[in-house]
Amino acid sequence: MPAKPTHIRWHERLVSRQDYQRRNRHPSMVLWFTGLSGSGKSTISHAVERQLFDRGWYTYLLDGDNVRHGLNRDLGFSAEDRKENIRRIGEVAKLFVDAGLLVLTAFISPFRDDRERVRALFQPGEFVEIHVKCDLATCERRDPKGLYRKARAGEIPDFTGISSPYEEPDDPELVLDTARWSVDECVSHVVRYVETRKEAWFQPFTEKREAR
User: Fold this and answer.
1) Of 109, 163, 164, 188, which is the active-site residue?
2) What is the pLDDT of residue 3?
3) pLDDT for 48-107, tens place per residue?
4) Total structural domains in the chain?
5) Which of 104, 133, 156 lies closest to 40 in space, CA to CA?
6) Pairwise CA distance, residues 21 & 198, whole Å
7) Residue-range definition of the domain harbouring residue 114
8) Does residue 57 form part of some domain?
9) pLDDT tens for residues 146-156?
10) What CA–CA distances, in Å, run from 182 to 163, 177, 186?
11) For 30-56, what is each residue's pLDDT tens digit?
């Protein structure tokens, strides 16, 4: 590992995270969707973003496949590359949260330690882990990209759920059971949670106005 440069220092910004939040009129956070391939992460996160954007939230969605076309195009799917993939996404998500946005991420992110390292980047309450829960058999029946079929045939090594483990979250903020719930039900559940967070964030401002 190359030596860490000694001439780099942190520059404090004149525009704070709170400044962005007040202008945007909502708190900033990351909605971290995690689950097996085919569980519904991308479908649900895209639909959630659409609804929140239409309600006036400033949002951005980081999708696993899209990120690997650019930022992480140099990474494969080994254990170390997966770890680095999630580390980079966590750092990018932190930048969006610092800019006052609600950022959504849709990544398998199969390992608890990796997700907890990302959580540690954020202030309390800013990292919302959403377990998109679905049994392996249902995910395999869906198999929208044909990946499980290829993994079973040995064409894709280290495939999560087949030849590589998926570690479910121990205590996620939300669980969406997509084997039993419709997409609309899952989306409504997430949007209600986020809007409730917004109401709680607004309450101190409301109390200050009423106290005048």
Assistant:
1) 109
2) 64
3) 999 999 999 999 999 877 878 877 888 888 888 889 989 999 999 999 999 999 999 999
4) 1
5) 133
6) 11
7) 17-200
8) yes
9) 999 999 999 99
10) 29, 9, 6
11) 999 999 999 999 999 999 999 999 999
**Nearest by Cα to 105 from 50, 42, 56:** 42
Asked whether residue 146 is assigned to any structural domain, the reply reads: yes
Q: Note whether residue 206 is domain-resident.
A: no
Q: pTM, whole model, 2 decimals?
A: 0.89
Q: How does DSSP classify residue 59?
A: E
Is 16 an active-site residue?
no
Q: What is the CATH number of the domain that holds 174?
A: 3.40.50.300
End-to-end CA distance of the chain: 58
3-class state of residue 205 by DSSP: helix
Pairing of the two strands 59-63 and 174-177: unpaired
Cβ atoms of residues 62 and 46 within 8 Å: no
| Alpha-carbon span 173 to 159, nearest angstrom | 26
Whether 192 is covered by a domain: the verdict is yes
